[in-house]
Amino acid sequence: MTGRQPAVEPGVCILRYPLPGPTATTNLGAALAPRLGRGDVLTLAGDLGAGKTTLARGLIGALGHAGPVPSPTFTLVQHYAIEPVPIWHFDLYRIGHRDELVELGYDEACAEGIVLVEWADRLGPDLPATRLNIALDYDRSGRARAAKLSGLATWTDRLQGFWP
Ligand SMILES: Nc1ncnc2c1ncn2[C@@H]1O[C@H](COP(=O)(O)OP(=O)(O)OP(=O)(O)O)[C@@H](O)[C@H]1O
Ligand SMILES: [Mg+2]
User: Between helices 52-62 and 22-32, what is the axis angle to 10°?
Assistant: First the structure.
C-alpha cells in the first residue's frame, strides 16, 4: 500500500490522507461537503494549530457560505444559515461546563443542521457515536499534516470512492 492509498477497514471506516499544506486541508473540507447532511456531526481533532478551523473553512465555503469564516475560539460557536441545511461550527476549547452546551444551542444544532466541533472531547457523554471524526496530525517535519477519518460502518458506505 502506498502512502496515498485510502484503507477501509470493516466495522469502522478509516481513511488516511496526506495534507502537504493548508490548501490540501481546505480541499479535504470542501470535498467532504457534498457527502454531508442534516444531523451529521463532524468532530475535528488535533493539537493547537493542527488545521481544524482551516478544514472547517473549506467545508463551510463549499456548502455555499461566501463570507468570512471566523474561528469560534472566543465565541465558542458560529452559525451559518445556509440553505437547505444550516451549519453550526463549535470550538469547545474554552467551554467551562457541559451545561453551557444548552445555551450554545448544541441540541438544536444537532437536530437541524450539520455540526462541526473542534475540541469535541469536551462533550464527554454528549459526544455522538455516529460522528465522523477527522484527526489532524503533524507529520515528522512538523509543518505538513496528515488526516485520519474514522467512524462507524455507515461512514464506510458514505465515503465510498471518496478522494479529496
Ligand atoms: N496541511 C497543512 N500543512 C501546514 N500548515 C497547515 C496545514 N493545514 C493548516 N495549516 C496551517 O496551520 C495553522 C493553524 O490552522 P488552524 O487555525 O486551522 O488550526 P486549528 O487546529 O483550528 O487551531 P486551534 O487549535 O487554535 O483551534 C494555519 O496557519 C494554517 O494555515
Ligand atoms: Mg481552530
Answer: 50
